[in-house]
Amino acid sequence: MPVPAPRFQRIATLVAIDSEHRVALLRTQDSAPPIWELPQRGVGLAESYRGSVTRLAGQLMSERSVRLGTITGRLWAQPPEGDVTRTEVRYFIARASPPARSGLAGGCTFWAPRGSLGAFLDAPRLETTSILVDGYLDGWLPDGPITLD
């Protein structure tokens, strides 16, 4: 018997960290001031979160070697409230090597210093990202999935 499609949007988010402990951000709109977000993409019904984020990393960082870590963060879809689309997000931490040549490929436009993420990300995304980045780099997050709710 086929499994029914999930009744929520599935998002894979990439938390790419380079050797200088900077985090990759994308500019989402041509506005002043700019709006920054972590790289993310929707996950299709027939694909896995890991497969989706692996393809995203390859598209955005073709000039860098990217290695996915074993720590993943999960924000589970909340119960429905009215006509709001339920969303489940999985965060994948990845280490990115220095680029083979100068410049960034495919729209990965800014590497924000770890301590300056608050200047670029909004409050809910900042808290989640800071927990993952600090816990990963400082070594206090265990390997495997963690719940961020």
What oligomeric assembly is this protein in? single chain
H-E order: EEEEHEEEHE
Low-confidence stretches: 101-106
Mean pLDDT: 83
Question: CATH homologous superfamily name?
Answer: Nucleoside Triphosphate Pyrophosphohydrolase
Helical fraction: 10-25%
Q: Give the end-to-end Cα distance, rounded to a whole number of Å.
A: 32 Å
Tell me the name of the CATH class: Alpha Beta
At CATH's second level, what is the architecture?
A: Alpha-Beta Complex
The dominant shape is: globular
Main β-sheet: number of strands, strand sense, barrel status? 5 strands, mixed
Radius of gyration, CA atoms, in whole angstroms: 16 Å
CATH names the topology as Nucleoside Triphosphate Pyrophosphohydrolase
How many structural units, i.e. domains? 1
Strand composition percent: 25-35%
Class of secondary structure makeup: alpha/beta
* Total number of strands: 8
Task: Output the strand order for the largest sheet.
Answer: 4-1-6-5-8
What is the number of helical segments per DSSP (H or I, 4+ residues)?
A: 2
